[in-house]
């Protein structure tokens, strides 16, 4: 489960769907800036480039440059910097059947992410895969903190906003298949949480495909992993993300 490691990023997925289904885990207000009304590309999309710069600096053993890159967003959490609402504003959450979902296999997840070019199908923002974020957190815990249970006053806002997540087009709790690739798409964490159990039939949640080329920063993963001392818990994900589509 996600709550295994004590530091750094587990290679398992966070309990995103479980959290979204839970009444007391995530609420709209925690993910929504009350005064914000943003359409189109989100302002924080540029944070992806900050992470990329920091990761490249870490790979070059230049921690000073990595800290400088992260400085504009250092230590931000969803408590201090709430995630701005998606331009597609959802209505009310439908009541699910309470069906438990599980993560599909690592290879299915990798295939879905590659197919969707690691780009959110709802808001078209680029995302960054969790192992890359986890390694940055491990190497720079003060600037880019992470908590195994995603404590919201600790974990960096980026995780809640632009980390790569697997989204069920039709929620498992309302009858969707939990592992079929046709029912799976790539979503940023923000859209994952804000869409909740809604169907894509609901207004504002249409799937859009990108033609852009984006890899979720997976190309940096092997060297970043090396820099962090090759933590064993991430080995399988490092291998998975080196696979190339046929
Ligand atoms: Zn999104």
Write the layout of secondary structure elements.
Layout (H helix, E strand, L loop, with lengths): L15 H6 L6 H4 L15 H13 L3 H8 L35 H10 L14 H10 L17 H6 L1 E5 L15 E5 H7 L25 H7 L7 H8 L4
Antiparallel strand pairs: 1-2
Zinc ion binds next to strand 2 and helix 8.
Q: What does this protein look like?
A:
The protein is mainly alpha-helical. It has one domain. The protein has 10 helices and 2 strands, in the order αααααααββααα. Strands 1-2 form a two-stranded antiparallel ribbon. The relative contact order is 0.22. The structure holds zinc ion. The site of zinc ion has 8 residues, from β2 and α8. This is HNH endonuclease. Keywords: Endonuclease, Hydrolase, Nuclease. InterPro entries: NA-targeting_endonuclease. GO terms for molecular function: endonuclease activity.
Q: In brief, what are we looking at here?
A:
The protein is mainly alpha-helical and 246 residues long. It has one domain (16-24, 44-76, 106-242). 32% of the residues lie in helices and 4% in strands.
Summarize the main sheet: 2 strands, antiparallel
Low-pLDDT residue intervals, each spanning 5 or more residues:
1-42, 89-98
Mean pLDDT: 78
Strand order of the largest sheet: 1-2
Provide the number of structural domains: 1
Distance between the termini: 31 Å
Q: If helices are DSSP runs of H or I spanning 4 or more residues, what is the number of helices? A: 10
Q: What coarse outline follows from CA principal-axis ratios? A: globular
Helix content: 25-40%
Topology, number of strands: 2
Could you say which small molecules are bound to this protein?
Answer: zinc ion
Region (Disordered): 1-25
GO molecular function: endonuclease activity
Protein name: HNH endonuclease
Keywords: Endonuclease, Hydrolase, Nuclease
């Amino acid at each position: 489960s996600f709550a295994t490691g004590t530091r750094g990023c587990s290679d398992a997925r966070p309990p995103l769907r479980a959290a979204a289904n839970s009444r007391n885990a995530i609420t709209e207000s925690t993910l929504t800036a009350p005064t914000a009304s943003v359409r189109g590309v989100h302002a924080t999309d540029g944070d992806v480039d900050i992470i990329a710069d920091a990761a490249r600096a870490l790979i070059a053993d230049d921690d000073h440059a990595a800290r400088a890159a992260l400085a504009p967003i250092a230590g931000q959490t969803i408590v201090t910097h709430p995630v701005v609402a998606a331009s597609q504003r959802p209505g009310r959450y439908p009541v699910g059947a309470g069906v438990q979902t599980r993560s599909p296999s690592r290879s299915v997840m990798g295939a879905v992410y590659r197919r969707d070019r690691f780009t959110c199908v709802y808001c078209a923002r680029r995302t960054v895969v969790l192992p890359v974020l986890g390694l940055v957190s491990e190497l720079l815990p003060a600037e880019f903190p992470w908590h195994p249970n995603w404590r919201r006053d600790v974990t960096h806002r980026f995780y809640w906003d632009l980390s790569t997540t697997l989204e069920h087009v039709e929620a498992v709790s309302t009858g969707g298949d939990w592992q079929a690739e046709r029912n799976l798409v790539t979503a940023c964490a923000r859209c994952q949480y804000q869409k909740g159990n809604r169907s894509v039939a609901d207004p504002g949640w249409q799937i859009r495909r990108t033609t852009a080329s984006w890899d979720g920063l997976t190309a940096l993963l092997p060297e970043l992993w090396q820099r962090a001392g090759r933590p064993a818990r991430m080995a399988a994900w490092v291998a998975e993300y080196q696979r190339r589509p046929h």
